Amino acid sequence: MINILIADDHTMFVDGxxxxxxxxxxxxxxxxxxxxxxxxxxxxxxxxxxxxLDVNLPGMSGIEVCKEIxxxxxxxxxxxxxxFNEESFVSEILNHGAxxxxxxxxxxxxxxxxIRTVAGGESYFxxxxxETIMKGLMNQRKASAKSxxxxxxxxxxxxxxxxxxxxxxxxxIADNLYISLKTVESHRSSLLSKLNARNSVGLVRIAxxxxxxx
Length: 214
Fold this sequence. Notes:
The protein is of the alpha/beta class. The protein folds into 2 domains: 2-137, Rossmann fold (3-Layer(aba) Sandwich); 149-209, Winged helix-like DNA-binding domain superfamily/Winged helix DNA-binding domain (Arc Repressor Mutant, subunit A), CATH 1.10.10. The chain contains 10 helices and 6 strands. Helix 1 links the parallel strand 1 and strand 2. Helix 2 packs parallel to helix 3 and helix 7 crosses helix 9.
């Protein structure tokens, strides 16, 4: 049995959610909360497996509630539900421990699937939310690629990187560029730090992904 707490400040919406959940033989509505602080109070004295949590709650935002649940009740899963499909809302509540995010226009079957999926320890997102997450990741990659671009004074390190990509040894790189072994190692260390790579293989992979060898 999955014990569920519905947290939303709209009584009619909560009534509708409870009616839907009662159709699931494996689902049980443990209680209702109409504001953020009451969610925390309820969890302290009741067995709850999953909180169906509205992102916008009075008294304490859904994001703040999720953060507190994650810190104080780590075994309780959070499935966020909202009218808003904005990357800032989605990413922030996920960063604070929510395992899923669905929209309030989600149909009955998808709602039940989302609850069972999240209660089972997996993540679940509405199709539109998934697209929002992917767009956010793509924007992050673009920003990362821009930040990874070499500044004017990084040309020496770029030449070292090109030779690393060609599998040259440290000595061969030093001989080809007429620099000391110490300078080669210095450039390698700078590259590892700047590109956030762990080794030479990582350097080459990141450089190729961001077109830094062109």
